[in-house]
Amino acid sequence: MGIKKATSLFSQECTCETTLAGLHKMITEDIGADSNYRIPVAIDGNVWVIAALKCRSPDSRVSAQFHAEPQVRVTAVSDYFDKRCNMLERAKFLPIIVFDGQRNPLKEEESDARQRIDLDHEYTALHEMYLLPGEYSLDEVLMRRKITIYPREDIFEEVIRAMREKGRRVVGSPFESDSQIRALYSQCIIDAAITTDTDYIGQGIPYTFTFAEGSGRVIVRVLSKLLKEVLPEKLSQQNRGRVRDINVDDLYFFCNMLGTDYLRHGLPGSGEQDCLRRFVEYLNCSDNIERELYVANYANQHATQDKFNKSFFFWKNAPAFLVIPNDDNISPRNAFLSNEYTIQLGNMSGVGCALDDELLEERLGFLPHTELRHNHPTAGTDNAPASLLDFFEIKYWSRTGKALDQIAKQQNSQGEVVVDGALLSFDFVTVPHHPDRCLHTYLSARGVGIDSIEDRSHLEAMVLEIHGYNIDALPKYVMCGGGGYVTNRIFKPNEGESIMWKRGGDAVDAIRSGEV
Predict the structure, then answer these.
(1) Which of 51, 73, 332, 422 has the fewest CB atoms within 10 Å around its CB?
(2) What average pLDDT score do residues 444-471 get?
(3) Which string of b and e fits 380-398 if b means at least 16 CB within 10 Å?
(4) From CA 322, how far away is CA 410, in angstroms rounded?
């Protein structure tokens, strides 16, 4: 995702590696804040969801939860968020998680070009494996399960709920999260962003970073380094002299020449070196009027002139929700942090749109506010339209106009909440095709000790034996570890009854004899 050519300029050459503490110092010194300042940082939530769903091991917790039958909450993803947010908070960062909204009409070409697996085909193949358990090994099934994981709607709901329970802020976007994050920066609500997308630095976010894999360090893209060091050095090779200082508005044009998610291709045959040469010509224009004429001339040469103009306009004026303080005397940042605000639909530069509807539709190809309203006019309760605040706070998802799907907690036959995965169906997915961790949970939830299980065949035999006795899962509140075979009756003994614990073979004999 992001810039299409000269990607190393945006993803490698302007980066540095440091610790979170080092990054905190770097930002606070830059903005003139003290060392105790909690830096608000926006997190591209979709990027983290996708990263959390990437399984290194076919028998991962993510895969086990995602493919559980019946369905369970995929808490592995919310745990991924929680772990990283904890690290940020310990380093005096204030995480603000931002999720995508509606799909951008300008990105149809990009969406079609991105490599995606054919989920329908893969799921059909997986179901065929389930139906023929004797013909496919567990390893083959697990590999197929691994590649059929995708960002399901209930996963977003689980993350949002879990993060809010921890007091963290989560917001939605009218369209794309990068535009919304840019708007939060324009309104001085955030100082940095976490993402893998190179669009962010090209749109003027001063610090964007990612966690370095397994090291506890971060890789930081620094806008000032790009503008003051990397690009001038590259351009001097073209110009054989010094070019004027480069600003963010200049960067907008350069990025659109290189190609973006909104317009994948520049001029025919125009590679990185040609874009650098043209950028030098643009920078050497004497004033803003001459630069505007240069951009217009470039657009006239483009094979899809109208699409270039829309892409260039969108890159600077993408729709975003704006925070409007209830009190004119406080800043958008303080209003947001104190929940004293309303929401307006404007653009990512932090201002309401100054164009009338006709001109805005001509520039974008669609009207953002009608796109939101017309796609789901009765999203709210009692058939009332959902408000912009509803979408921003993700009471309703702007992509569907509805509340996000959620998966209920599993319950045993007594209506008591049990651990996720305690209930397994073996009707469609047979015991041999369930991963070890799922079968371990199934046994543990029934009080069966698993430490003595010797191998996979022993595990499967134990599950089949216990399943045959139809033992109910224990309530979650008593699941403190392994133990003997028990039933819910021990928690509700009849008057005058005494309870005797039995383990292992003695417990099985008692179950067979009907004593419990």
Answers:
(1) 51
(2) 91
(3) eeeeeebebebbbbbbbbb
(4) 39
